[in-house]
Design a protein that fits this description.
mainly beta, 10 strands, about 65% strand
Length: about 210
């Protein structure tokens, strides 16, 4: 670390039963902290200038249903004349039904609300509120030699009363050949602006 800055992380895991557990993670990264080895859990790409708390709750019901509720609150200090604090939060609800070796269906809903500072070359701009809502449905069908997945995702972004939306439709075929060989085939159609972008390989809230 540079400038004698510090980064702190404190976690708590509690298992209520074999079907219910909860995790809480608190993080505090100084403004000038630099990580040389790896990135820490954070809203931003860099591990620094952030204060936040992440919580998730997972439950398994009836052997076939799983429910995950995750929430992350965070604050960062913006480097301007008044050193304004930008705050935000993200929430994720996932429900999945799995029929062993037959099929599974998953529904995922994500919501985020963040303050954002718009950069301008000549003058200071006020912070704006950005809201994002994303919905995803995925159906997976399992056979002895291959798996078929169909995914439908939609995203909506609201920033300064400006609405943008996008979608993703994808089909995957996963073919398993004996002797530990797996082939993946994907066909997808998507159209989403940057503010309403849809992540295919990443959860709406990290590690949720």
């Amino acid at each position: 670390t540079l400038f004698r800055s510090m980064a702190h992380m404190y976690g708590l895991n509690h298992t209520f039963s074999s079907y219910v557990n909860m995790n809480v993670l608190f993080r505090a990264y100084d403004n000038n902290f630099e990580s040389f080895s790896s990135k820490g859990f954070s809203e931003q790409s860099a591990t620094g200038n952030e204060l936040g708390m992440y919580t998730d709750f997972r439950a398994y019901v009836g052997g076939n249903h799983s429910i995950t509720l995750a929430h992350d609150r965070f604050a960062t200090q913006y480097a301007n004349v008044r050193n304004e604090i930008m705050r935000g939060h993200e929430s994720l609800l996932t429900w999945e039904y799995t029929k062993y070796n037959t099929y599974s269906f998953r529904s995922k809903t994500a919501y985020s609300r963040k303050q954002k500072q718009i950069e301008h070359l000549y003058y200071k701009t006020p912070a704006v509120i950005t809201k994002n809502i994303k919905q995803e449905y995925r159906l997976s069908v399992f056979f002895q030699a291959f798996e078929f997945r169909s995914t439908l995702s939609g995203g909506l972004s609201i920033q300064d009363s400006v609405r943008e939306s996008g979608y993703y439709i994808g089909n995957d075929i996963i073919f398993r050949i004996p002797q530990k060989t797996t082939c993946y085939f994907r066909y997808a159609r998507f159209n989403a602006p940057y503010n309403a972008r849809i992540y295919v390989y990443q959860n709406a809230i990290r590690y949720a």
